[in-house]
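Hi U.,

Before I forget, here's the chain from the pilot set. I'm dumping it here mostly so it's searchable later in email.
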Amino acid sequence: MIEITNVNFHYAGLEQAGVKDINLCIPDGECLLLCGASGCGKTTITRLINGLIPHFYKGELSGKVMVNGRKINEQQLYDLAQVVGSVFQNPRSQFFSVDTDGEVVFGPENIGLSKDEILNRKDMVLHELNLLKLMQRSLFDLSGGEKQKIACGSVAALLPDIILLDEPSSNLDWDSIKDLANVIRLWKSQGKTVIISEHRLWYLADLIDRAVYMEGGRIAKEWDRDSFLKLTETELASFELRPMTLEEKYIREFNDNGGKKPPIAENQEHSNSSDIQIRNFYFTYTPEKYLFFRKKLTPKNEDICHLRIQSLDVKKGEIIGVIGKNGSGKSTFLRCLCGLEKTCIGKVYISKKEYKGKGLTKICYMVMQDVNHQLFTDSVMAEVLLSMKKEDEHEAEKILKSLDLYEYKDKHPMALSGGQKQRVAIASALAAEAEILLFDEPTSGLDYRHMREVAALLKELAGKGKTVFVSTHDPELAVACCDRLIHISDGYAYET
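Structure:
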């Protein structure tokens, strides 16, 4: 049983963030959905339950939070971890190991279980969560979705009674979301209490028992499952919530790997008069082997590579959606295109001018999937100004207003919510004025309204002649703004 009574919390150093007048009772075995716009207080609720507030996040706290009959502020985080398991929006922030096997068993090892019990739990988790293919891998080599799966496994290995999931589907492909739904279904059958803070709703339709809608740090609405499912798409949109159902065509497009079509280079004639020509992008995650063969790479020996895109033509002002399963090479393609992968072979021609290697970094700007990697300054305003060739505070303010970030202009970026950080990174991309803009999961962790705003901004950029590549698992974003989709599968590119 979880009881939150008359709770108010205000983060130290922030004027508005936190929660107010929270009264919430969650019985054992309930699957509860926390929904609402980015920054409404969903994550704060989960931090109250797992003890990160007040033990880690400091601020002014009043009221009472009880978990299994004990006050949260009287329990140590060490003890709470065996009762409450948390999967954060950014799984990297909860990793302690460097390899997948070590991460799954870290929790059981940390609480001093016997070797046999640790191995039994590992075996159980790997089979229940379908993680066998991710074992014996470096965590640094995993995609965002694969990291999310490992985070779920490491939490499940502790056998907690309560599991908190913060935007668990934000980096997952369709198959992985189905796997996640099955895991939640399994946890429910085991009698666990599951609390999910989420923007994507469609996969939860038959899982949740209750939905709690938050607005401005308060609980504004509550529905039981049947009442929530009766809400129309228009009603959900009025609450800035995404639809509970998705059209079948979205699912077909995002699961189709090109069918029986050959890769683009083999079935498409390319013209040297195209605005932008991408040629011979080859990359491998095994640099020693790659460096040995790099000068001899041809389509005949491309099997040594994990990325094999021989040719792709795009137009200036076009928005290209890059889709595919977790680990298929989408993010790798974007990193190679913007020059971040130094050992990648590949050239880009814009108006017949050649760019390669470091030259690509001058014409491209990438918003990474994990935005914490590219937030450097001590204020949101400074972050945007840093990306400008010539600082223009008036233009920076205009960009921040367009992304609903102006009120946070003097705040430290790392003090913002995950969705707000994402918008700060997008603001920096808008300020960079690069020829080619690359977005890796730009709507990860964003609510319905801000997803639509990002789509509108990408279309505005394209209207100004910018070429935009968007790696995404978000079909609503793709439908809202992409001119065409490129499916990456096993390192090859296919037209959908």
